[in-house]
Write a structure and sequence with these properties.
The protein is mostly helical. It folds into 2 domains: 8-93, RNA polymerase sigma factor, region 2, helix turn helix motif (Rna Polymerase Sigma Factor, Chain: A); 112-192, Arc Repressor Mutant, subunit A. Helix content is 72%, strand content 0%. The longest helix is centred in the middle third of the chain and has 36 residues, at 73-108. The N and C termini lie far apart (67 Å).
């Protein structure tokens, strides 16, 4: 492959005129970057997205790279990967916190806390199946698949031909509407109590 015998800095400079040469840097660093990103976000898919975004940033900012003593291409590139990883981590943390809040709010209105986890889960499924028909069909489908059929968000996204983000948003809206219906009807799913 072209560019394999050059130093990183040389490959980067050459890739400005011939973008195909940049592939040599991708081959050299992809696995290392994936490991670094994974250590931060703990998700293979997120790490892959981070690495792809990082390589894009590296290429788009190649003209800004300056080879100075003590700062190699490797350190510059890792800084981009780490900054991108930390930004994704912060974003994921905000999303997880909001989903965690929504999940707890969703369950608070559904049933009293019981000692047996299996009993709670069974009661939740019965409750959900009572309220489900009151939701719009597109929200009903994702809620049903997620809570009653125990499918992952990724599985639902593949079935519904939606992005995982779209599935998360539908779940968020469905849970919010579900809770609102319970509050409006002042009902706590009689079978769950």
């Amino acid at each position: 492959m072209e560019g394999m015998n050059y130093k990183d800095e040389e490959v980067l400079a050459l890739s400005l005129a011939r973008p195909s040469i940049f592939e040599a840097l991708v081959d050299r660093y992809q696995n290392d970057f994936l490991r670094a990103a994974f250590k931060i976000v703990k998700s293979k898919e997120e790490a892959e997205d981070i690495v792809q975004e990082s390589f894009t940033k590296i290429y788009l900012n190649a003209k800004k790279f300056r080879n100075i003593e003590g700062a190699s291409f490797r350190s510059w590139a890792y800084k981009i990967v780490l900054n991108t990883s930390f930004n994704h981590y912060k974003k994921l943390k905000r999303i997880r916190e909001s989903v965690k809040y929504v999940d707890s709010a969703f369950y608070e209105g559904v049933a009293d806390v019981k000692n047996n986890d299996f009993e709670i889960e069974a009661d939740m499924k019965v409750c959900i199946s009572q309220i489900l028909p009151q939701l719009p069909s597109h929200l009903q489908d994702v809620l049903k698949k997620y809570y009653l059929e125990d499918k992952s968000q990724k599985e639902i996204s593949e079935e519904e031909k939606l992005s995982v983000t779209a599935v998360k948003m539908r779940l968020f809206r469905a849970k919010r509407l579900f809770k609102k219906i319970i509050e409006q009807n002042n009902q706590l799913c009689t079978t769950a109590i």
